[in-house]
Amino acid sequence: MDPRPRARGEDEYGVVLISYNMLPEYPEVIVWDKKYETECDRLSEKAARLKKGVRRWGRWYLNTMSPASLDTEVWSPSVGYEPERCIEIYDIVLCKCRTESQRRQWIDHMGEKCWVGTNGLDDLRRAFMDLAKVDFEMVKS
Fold it and tell me: Which residue, among 104, 90, 91, has the nearest Cα to 132 in the 3D structure?
């Protein structure tokens, strides 16, 4: 994937100055972010499929280790890593998702992440809907 274009207010090291947060982003950065979120969703869903015997929703999968959580793997295909290499695991602890309001806050928060993508958000909503039918503290694979 092409390297990410320099964002508005970004210095030569990739640091964005806080004072530039309210300005609209350059169009080429927005286009790159859309490509990146799609590729990140694809790689993360592929990683979730490799985890045998766990409940999953697209790129999200259930981790029943204590405390139980919904996890996804954050990939960075733009910086030259091999496709099989995971950058980090992002987890949402289920005991922090008991109410509809808490789940909505998580959806809104994840919507701010450029690496989640539309499919990733839809998968997270489905996971929350399925898990809301059971006691979040008693979740088992």
Answer: 104
Nearest C-alpha neighbor of 131 from the set 68, 85, 86: 68
pLDDT (tens digit per residue) in 25-79: 677 766 767 777 777 777 778 777 777 778 889 889 998 887 889 898 876 554 4
Q: Exposure of 109 by Cβ count < 10 A (0-12 exposed, 13-18 middle, 19+ buried)?
A: exposed
**CA dist list (Å): 45 to 39, 68, 76, 99:** 10, 20, 14, 26
22 CA to centre of own chain: 23
Buried residues in 70-99 as b, exposed as e (16+ CB within 10 A): bbbbbbbbbeeeeeeeeeeebebebeebee
| Dmax (CA) of the chain | 49
Domain ranges across the chain: 24-138
